[in-house]
Design goal:
alpha+beta; Isoleucyl-tRNA Synthetase, domain 2; Isoleucyl-tRNA Synthetase, Domain 1; four-stranded parallel sheet; four-stranded antiparallel sheet; 24 helices; globular; binds ligand ANZ; binds zinc ion
C-alpha cells in the first residue's frame, strides 16, 4: 500500500532551535525525573561528582558526562526508571584556590561558577533529573556531612592526634596520604613537606581487611582494583626482636644473614650501638637510615644485604658485612600484619569547607555538636585566606561564633576551627540524591529514608575517571561500610559496577587547564549543536580509552547527522520502498536492508551494553549508507533508526520521532528495538569473477544480493584483484550468471 500524500518539505536542520525546544519540553514535562516511590524498575545511573572550576566545563568533562548519559538513556529505553542526578562538589580547596587566584571570595565565586556550570550542563542535553540537583556548600547538604562526622566520633571512628603529617606549602594545609601523589600535592602539584600537627583522623584502617577482601566481589576495572589493593597494601610478616629493637620483616627466614639494623632517620649514620642477632648470636651495628620509613612496620628493619637490594646498596656504601647463609628453619618472632593504608586525615586549615562540628570544653574534653544543632554554619569572614602557620582561617571568625556552650556541662567552650576535607563531602553524595526531599532529609536524625534507600541503592552504574582510583573511591567505600555497621544501610559496597572512562587528548596531552589545551564545548555546541559534539566525542575511540580531539572530525560528524536528517525528510514518506522498480524485482533488497537493520540493532545493543560507543556509531553509519543505497524511506526502517540514534543524538532523534514521523512524545521513553535472530543471519554466496574466462577473484555476498546484476557487477569491478585486470582496457561484454558467476570479456 502506497501512501504518497504526506510529502515532507523540510528546512535545513536548525540545531540551535531544535535543541532548545526539546530541552525545554523535557524539563517542562519532567521527562527525566522518575517518581522514586512508585518506580518499578529503578536504575541509578551516576557519573562521578564534578567540581566546577570557574572557567566551566571543558570537552574532557563533557566526554565523561556524555558517555554516562548514553548508557542511562539506553537503560531508560529498556524499560528502567532511570535516575540520573547531577550536582556540584563546590566546597573545598579546588574551588577555593581558584577564588583566591582571581581575587574573589569563595562564596561569591561559587555562585558564579554554579550558574555557568549548570548552564553548560543544560546545553549538552543530558537526561538529568533537574529536580534533585545538590551542591556540597549548600547548608542543607553540609548539615549531613557534619552529621557523618558526629556519627564517626560517637562510634569511636574520629580522633584527634598529634602526628607527622603531609603539609602543602602552597595550599597551606595538611593533606591526607591519598592526596599526596609522587610527593606532590594532588591539587596544586607543589612538593609536600612534613610537619607535626594536631589533626582529626578517621579510622579507615579498621576496615583495611574488609576494603581489601570486598574488592573481589565488585565489578570494577582491573586497573582500579589493583590500585586499591596496593594502596591498602596488606603485608604479612613477623616482628623480630633484636634486644630492645623490634623490626618488621616479610622474610624471617633470612634473619641469620642480617648484618645490621637500621632505624628510620633523617640522615644515614652509625649510632655507635650494637645489638645481638638472635639467630646467630653475633653483635651487629645499629644504623640510622633515610630509606627506612618512620610510620611503616616498627620504623626499623633488619638489614639483609645478601637478600635485599636496598640493604645491599646501603651495606656496600657504608662497608657493612655482607653474609649469605642458607634460609633458617627456626622462624623467629611473632606474626604481624602490616598495612600501607593510614588513617584518613580529615582536618584542613582552610576556610571553604564544613566546619568540623566539635566543641572543646576545658572540663569535658571534645564534645560533638548535638545533631539537632547542625549545621554549624560556616561564618562569613573577610580574611579567609590560609595563613600558613597552621592556624585555621576560622580563627578570624567572631568570638560569638568561636565560643559556645559545652553541650555537656553548659560552660563556655571553644569550637574546632578546622574544616573537613573536601573528600568527605563527596564520600556520601550518592546516598543523598535519592533522599533529597524526604522527611528524613528535612529532619536531623539521619538523612536516609529506609524505603527509598533500599529501593535505589547501591548505585547500578557508576561512571568516572580512573584518577580517583584510590581517593574518592576508597573513601566512599569506607563511609558506606561504616554506615552499614551503624545500621543506616543494608549494603556495604556503594558501587558494585564501576566503569572507568578514558581521557581526551588534545595536541598530545591530557586536556587540562594546567596544560593550557582546554577546549570549551560552548563554541562547538553553538556552531554544530550538542548532538554533533556528543556523537563526535563518543566516536573518538573506545570509551574506556578516550581519544584525540580534532576539529576536522567534528565537521565530519556534522555531515553525518545532516545525512541522517535528509534521509528522513527529503523524500516522500511512503509505506513501502520507493526504489524504482526498473531493475530486478525488489524482494531481495528487502532481505538485504532488513538483515542489515537487524544486524545493526544487535550490534548497537551489544556495544552500548559494553560502553563501546564508537563501534555502535560506526554501525549506525553503515546502516545509514545502506538506507541511502537502497533509497529506504519506509517508516518500518526509519523508526528503528531514530530509536537507535536516540541515546547519542537525543535532540535530533526526538525531532525525527515526534516532528517527522509523528510518533508520540518521547523517543526517550519508547522501547528499544529488538533484533530478530533469524533476520540477522543472512546466507552468504560465493560468486566467481573471471576476466576473459580466467578466475581472478571471488566475491562473498548476501544471497539476496547475489541475484542483482548491476550490484554484483559493480562490486566485482571494485574488487582489487579484478580491477588490476580491467584497468586501461575496454570491457566488451559482461556475462552474469545469477548467484554464481561474472565474466568480463576485455
Ligand atoms: C628483611 C628482608 C629481606 C626484607 C629480604 C625484604 C627482603 P612490604 O612487603 O612492603 O611490607 N621494611 C620493613 N619495615 C620498613 C620500613 N619502616 N621502611 C622501609 N622498609 C621496611 O615490605 C616489608 C619489607 O620491607 C620488610 O622485610 C623489610 O625488609 C622492609 F630479602 O626484612 B624485609
Ligand atoms: Zn597544594
Amino acid at each position: 500500500m502506497v501512501n504518497s500524500t504526506r510529502i515532507l518539505i523540510m528546512n535545513k536542520y536548525d540545531h540551535t532551535k531544535i535543541e532548545k525546544k526539546w530541552q525545554g519540553e523535557w524539563e517542562k514535562k519532567k521527562s527525566f525525573s522518575p517518581n522514586l516511590n512508585k518506580a518499578k524498575k529503578p536504575f541509578y545511573n551516576l557519573m562521578m561528582f564534578p567540581y566546577p572550576s570557574a572557567e566551566g566545563m571543558h570537552v574532557g568533562n563533557m566526554y565523561a558526562f556524555t558517555g554516562a548519559d548514553v548508557y542511562g538513556r539506553y537503560q531508560r529505553m529498556n524499560g528502567y526508571d532511570v535516575l540520573e542526578p547531577i550536582g556540584l562538589d563546590g566546597f573545598g580547596i579546588h574551588s577555593e584556590n581558584y577564588a583566591i587566584k582571581v581575587g574573589r571570595h569563595p562564596k561569591e565565586h561559587a555562585k558564579i561558577s554554579e550558574e555557568n556550570f549548570y548552564r553548560q550542563l543544560h546545553m549538552i542535553g543530558n537526561s538529568y533529573d533537574w529536580n534533585r540537583a545538590l551542591e556540597t556548600y549548600d547548608l542543607e547538604y553540609y548539615k549531613w556531612t557534619q552529621w557523618l562526622f558526629v556519627k564517626m566520633f560517637k562510634a569511636g571512628f574520629a580522633y584527634k592526634d598529634d602526628a607527622i603529617v603531609n603539609w602543602c606549602p602552597s595550599c597551606k594545609t595538611v593533606l591526607a596520604d591519598e592526596q599526596v601523589i609522587d610527593d606532590e600535592c594532588e591539587r596544586c602539584g607543589t612538593e609536600v613537606t612534613k610537619r607535626e600537627m594536631r589533626s582529626w583522623f578517621f579510622r579507615i584502617t579498621k576496615y583495611a581487611d574488609r576494603l581489601l577482601e570486598n574488592i573481589e566481589k565488585i565489578k570494577w576495572p582491573e586497573k582500579i582494583k589493583i590500585a586499591q589493593r596496593n594502596w591498602i597494601g596488606r603485608s604479612e610478616g613477623r616482628i623480630i626482636k633484636f634486644e630492645n629493637i623490634e623490626v618488621f620483616t616479610t622474610r624471617p627466614e633470612t634473619v641469620n644473614s642480617a648484618t645490621f639494623i637500621a632505624i628510620s632517620g633523617n640522615k644515614n649514620r652509625f649510632t655507635g650501638n650494637y645489638v645481638i642477632n638472635p639467630s646467630t648470636n653475633k653483635k651487629i651495628p645499629v644504623w640510622e637510615a633515610q630509606y627506612v620509613l618512620a610510620n611503616y612496620g616498627t620504623g626499623a628493619i633488619m638489614g639483609v644485604p645478601a637478600y635485599d637490594e636496598k640493604d645491599m646498596e646501603f651495606a656496600k656504601k657504608y662497608k657493612i658485612d655482607i653474609v649469605k647463609k642458607p634460609f633458617t628453619k627456626e622462624i623467629q618472632g611473632k606474626k604481624h600484619t602490616n598495612y600501607h593504608l593510614r588513617d584518613w586525615l580529615i582536618s584542613r586549615q582552610r576556610y571553604w569547607g564544613p566546619p568540623i562540628p566539635m566543641i572543646n570544653c576545658k572540663d569535658c574534653g571534645w564534645q560533638p555538636v548535638p545533631e539537632r544543632d547542625l549545621p554549624v554554619i560556616l561564618p562569613d569572614i573577610k580574611d579567609f585566606k590560609p595563613q600558613g602557620d597552621g592556624v585555621s582561617p576560622l580563627y578570624n571568625a567572631s568570638d560569638s561564633w568561636k565560643r559556645v556552650n559545652c553541650p555537656k556541662c553548659g560552660k563556655i567552650a571553644e569550637r574546632e576551627l578546622d574544616v573537613s576535607d573536601t573528600f568527605l563531602d563527596s564520600s556520601w553524595y550518592f546516598l543523598a540524591y535519592p533522599n533529597l526531599g524526604t522527611k528524613e532529609w528535612e529532619g536531623y536524625e539521619s538523612p536516609l529514608n529506609f524505603k527509598i534507600t533500599k529501593k535505589w541503592l547501591p548505585v547500578n552504574a557508576y561512571i568516572g575517571g580512573a584518577e580517583h582510583a584510590v581517593l574518592h573511591l576508597l573513601y566512599a567505600r569506607f563511609v558506606t561500610m561504616f554506615l552499614k555497621d551503624e545500621s543506616y544501610l543494608d549494603f556495604e559496597e556503594p558501587f558494585p559496577f564501576l566503569f572507568g572512562h578514558g581521557l581526551i587528548i588534545k595536541d598530545g596531552a591530557k586536556m587540562s587547564k594546567s596544560k593550557g589545551n582546554v577546549v570549551n564545548p560552548d563554541e562547538y555546541i553553538n556552531k554544530f549543536g550538542a548532538d554533533t559534539l556528543r556523537m563526535y566525542l563518543m566516536f573518538l575511540g573506545p570509551y574506556n580509552q578516550g581519544g584525540d580531539f580534532r576539529d576536522s572530525g567534528i565537521e565530519g560528524m556534522g555531515r553525518f547527522l545532516g545525512r541522517v536528517w535528509r534521509l528522513f525528510t527529503t523524500k516522500s514518506t511512503l509505506e513501502e520502498f520507493i526504489r524504482p522498480p526498473s531493475e530486478e524485482d525488489f524482494a531481495p533488497e528487502v532481505d538485504v536492508v532488513r538483515s542489515k537493520l537487524h544486524q545493526t540493532i544487535k550490534k548497537v545493543t551489544e556495544d552500548i551494553t559494553q560502553m563501546k560507543f564508537n563501534t555502535a556509531i560506526s554501525a549506525l553509519m553503515e546502516l545509514v549508507n545502506v538506507f541511502y543505497e537502497y533509497r529506504v524511506s519506509s517508516r518500518e526502517y526509519l523508526k528503528p533508526l531514530a530509536l537507535l540514534l536516540a541515546p547519542f543524538a537525543p535532540h535530533m532523534a526526538e525531532e525525527l520521532w515526534v516532528g517527522v514521523l509523528g510518533e508520540h512524545f518521547s523517543v526517550h521513553k519508547a522501547s528499544w528495538p529488538r533484533h530478530d535472530a533469524n533476520l540477522v543471519k543472512v546466507e552468504q554466496l560465493v560468486i566467481v569473477i573471471q576476466v576473459n574466462g580466467k578466475v581472478r577473484s571471488t566475491l562473498q555476498v548476501e544471497s539476496g544480493v547475489s541475484n542483482l546484476e548491476s550490484r554484483v557487477i559493480k562490486l566485482a569491478k571494485e574488487d582489487k584483484k579484478v580491477s588490476k585486470w580491467l584497468d586501461g582496457r575496454v570491457v566488451k561484454k559482461t556475462v552474469f550468471v545469477p548467484g554464481k558467476l561474472v565474466n568480463f570479456v576485455v
